[in-house]
Design a protein that fits this description.
Elements: H1 13-31, H2 42-53, H3 57-66, H4 74-80, H5 92-119, H6 129-141, H7 147-150, H8 156-178, H9 183-204, H10 211-223, H11 234-255, H12 257-263, H13 271-290, H14 315-332, H15 338-350, H16 371-390, H17 394-417, H18 420-430, H19 435-447, H20 451-464, H21 469-482, H22 493-500, H23 507-521, H24 530-541, H25 550-566, H26 570-583, H27 587-599, H28 603-619, H29 629-647
């Protein structure tokens, strides 16, 4: 081995640590502007839950396990309590913690790839494993693809999951090696440390399960081209700890087949369309990793065109052929080109859950947080090979240029994420066909007092997407708040109703219907009467695309009850609430019915709904159970008091 290259850092630990410290400081410097960013989207729901039911996290976990449910990512929730003193006023501390965890994850990734490259001939003999691993980690730490993971508070779940996954893989590599010369220490790592790390990763996010097939990949590579035997009981360990869990997960998905299929009814794509579309998305991820422009680093991906067939769009068949050819080719050439085989296998395994058959959102950058490491390893190895051909000084020069350009791109991205004005405008400008990006930008403008500008943004979107129920209802809400209708931009009531009868299902439209009904009920919407908006709600109730969502049907009937309550129509109000309860039994709906009956001087009927609410509340396990106990008992006491007074 060339001592001048392959072992450069081996005898220079001080220089290695100095470069590592500099890398961490540079990463922090690049990310620092993004720490001033705000809470976004799913941050609110997760942090509200963390604030309500934690830090007694482990009791909640046991409760959910008793119910046969997954643990609800309790380790991630527990980590949020470290910064809960800043909630909901500032996201700085949350993002700062994410940045620290990002750095730790990078260091563990470095450790893993150093250990792997030292033991597996993935790269040519002349490529130094420590240097290549350091180059790969450097590029990964400052890559713009990871900005939306690090600066999106709720994606701490992904960071922690990856952190513990790398810790598990490190334990496996060292444990497997120690079996040959120090079996007790080796078995301690394999029987205790490895499963604990996997479990901790799983408690952070379920995606950590993929550590198990990744371990199988590493185990295979450790024996590639060696043909050595396996230690006693090691094969049994692989079956119990690696192969059996995969078989059990497959059985679980088969058992949940009907639930998975029913979830697709609320999506705008079928399982086949999802798989075809994911092929294009995966190729897009690879291009983003190879050419880090930062332009598409966003949380809004609802503008992705669905692949209806291999030829619609034509890029689908190209993506499918590329992925299948690469997979098959890399497998058959795995002994000659093990690095390519490793890169392809690692990348696809990391996407095996979130980018496959499960009815999830189509695309998110955070799905590449762990997957991207292998792609960047291929990049740095190739760069090293090119540099060596040019000249000895070429490799550091080429890599420094690449790292500098990547860092500049990421700095621009973190600057955008750190300024809500820039973030809203940037995402809308780069994703004009995204409903969510449009709504986010328009609502941001409205919050800044620029209602006219917000209405113009919505009207512009509807010119291209006239049947989008969510934006149609957002337009109505803005008109309510402005107190005027702009006939040049806004469809007539009859046109609106016609579009809502055939539009795709849209949760946002349902929630806006509830909000607008409250505006009308409180006389804050002069442009719509109760009867006019009742027709708008009926149009959604008559739309078959909404029927598969019990939550949507429930909330639409609640919106109707708000309108009827304004008109003091007790019978219609109660019918609407009861219809809501028929679709989904919600404690708040039972209590709403009880309050309506109190206002009608019918405490006897109110008691029936209160008792049903108590049954629901008591049926829930802690920490959800008993959340409404005080309110329920108070209303029950009120009902008994009023009934006693009526009898006297």
């Amino acid at each position: 081995m060339d001592k001048g290259t392959a072992d450069y850092f081996r005898g220079r630990p001080g220089l290695f640590l100095l470069l590592l410290a500099g890398l961490c400081l540079a990463t922090a410097f690049i990310y620092w502007p993004g720490l001033d960013g705000a809470f976004l989207l799913d941050d609110y729901s997760s942090l509200v839950l963390a604030a309500r039911y934690y830090p007694d996290i482990w009791t909640a976990t046991i409760s959910k396990l008793i119910q046969g449910e997954f643990p609800g990512r309790p380790l991630s929730m527990l980590s949020f309590t470290l910064n809960m003193h800043e909630w909901p006023h500032s996201a700085w501390g949350f993002k700062y913690t994410n940045l620290g965890l990002h750095l730790i994850t990078g260091l563990l990734g470095l450790w893993f790839f150093m250990a792997l490259l030292e033991r597996v001939p993935l790269v040519a003999e002349r490529k130094p494993p420590i240097t290549v691993a350091l180059m790969t980690t450097s590029l990964w730490l400052v890559h713009p693809m990871n900005v939306s993971t690090t600066l999106y508070v709720v994606q701490r779940m992904t960071i922690l999951s990856t952190l513990f996954s790398f810790a598990a893989l490190i334990a496996f590599i060292h444990g497997r090696e120690l079996l040959d010369r120090a079996p007790r220490r080796g078995w301690l790592l394999l029987l205790a440390v490895y499963p604990i790390m996997v479990l901790l990763g799983f408690l952070a996010k379920e995606n950590a399960f993929l550590t198990i097939p990744l371990t199988l990949l590493v185990a295979y590579l450790l024996t590639l081209n060696k043909g050595q035997g396996e230690p006693k009981h090691y094969r049994l360990w692989k079956f119990i700890y690696l192969k059996l869990p995969i078989l059990l997960l497959a059985a679980y998905f088969l058992f949940k087949h009907d639930a998975i299929a029913s979830s697709y009814l609320l999506r705008e794509f079928t399982p086949a369309e999802r798989l075809l579309t994911e092929a294009r998305i995966l190729v897009g991820y690879i291009l983003q990793l190879l050419i880090p422009t930062g332009r598409d680093i966003t949380v809004f991906h609802d503008d992705i065109a669905i692949s209806s067939s291999l030829l619609q769009p034509t890029s689908t068949i190209i993506a499918v052929l590329f992925l299948s050819t690469t997979l098959v080719g890399s497998y058959f050439l795995r002994r000659r080109y093990p690095l390519i085989f490793f890169t392809v296998a690692w990348f696809l395994i990391c996407h095996a859950l979130e980018s496959s058959f499960l009815p999830l959102e189509l695309s998110f950058e955070h799905r590449n947080y762990m997957a991207g490491f292998a792609v960047l390893l291929l990049v740095t190895s190739t760069l090293w090979a090119i540099g060596q051909r040019i000249g000895r000084a070429a490799t550091p020069s080429l890599f420094a240029a690449l790292l500098l350009l990547t860092g500049i791109t990421t700095t621009h991205a973190t600057t955008v994420w750190g300024d809500l004005d820039l973030f809203a405008h940037f995402n809308h400008a780069n994703h004009p066909d995204s409903e969510r990006a449009t709504e986010f930008y328009a609502n941001h403008l409205r919050a800044k007092g620029k209602l006219d500008d917000a209405r113009a943004v919505v009207a512009q979107y509807l010119q291209k997407h006239p049947n989008n129920a969510g934006v149609l209802l957002l337009q109505q809400q803005y008109s309510c708040q402005a107190g005027t209708i702009d006939p040049a931009q806004q469809p007539s009531l009859e046109t609106l109703i016609g579009r809502l009868r055939q539009s795709p299902h849209n949760y946002g439209a349902v929630e806006l219907s509830v909000d607008i009904s409250m505006l009308i009920a409180t006389n804050k919407c002069p442009i719509l009467s109760t009867r006019e908006f009742d027709r708008v709600i009926d149009a959604q109730l008559a739309n078959p695309n909404f029927w598969n969502s019990a939550v949507s049907m429930h909330n639409l009937y609640i919106a109707k009850s708000n309108l009827y309550a304004k008109e003091r129509n007790l019978d219609a109000t109660m019918r609407a609430v009861e219809s809501a309860i028929e679709h989904k039994k919600v404690i708040s709906s039972y209590l709403l019915a009880a309050n309506i009956l109190f206002s009608a001087n019918r405490p006897d009927l109110a008691e029936r709904f209160i008792l049903e609410a108590r049954k629901l509340d008591e049926a829930k396990h802690w920490p959800l159970g008993g959340a409404h106990k005080a309110l329920i008992e108070s209303l029950l006491a009120q009902a008994h008091a009023e009934m006693t007074e009526a009898r006297n």
